[in-house]
Amino acid sequence: MSDEKLLYIETFGCQMNVNDSEKVAALLKGEGYTPTPDASAADLIIVNTCSVREKAEHKVYSYLGRFRGLKRERRFLLGVGGCVAQQEGARLLKRVPWLDLVFGTHNLHLLPEMVRSAEQGKRRAAVDFIDNETRLDLFPRVDDGGGVTRFVTVMQGCDNFCSYCIVPYVRGREISRRSAEIIDEVRGAVAGGVREVTLLGQNVNSYGLKMPGELTFAGLLREISAIDGLERIRFTTSHPKDISPELIACFAELPKLCGHIHLPAQAGSDAILARMNRGYTRQEYLQKVAALKAARPDILITGDVIVGFPGETEDDFLQTLSLMEEVRYTDIFSFAYSPRPETAAASLPGRVTRKEATERLERVQALQREMTIERHAGFVDTCQQVLVEGMSKRGDQLYGRTGGNLIVNFAADPSLVGSLVDVRITRGFPNSLLGELAPMQ
Ligand code: SAH
Ligand code: SF4
Ligand code: F3S
Question: What is the value of pTM for the model shown?
Answer without folding.
Answer: 0.94
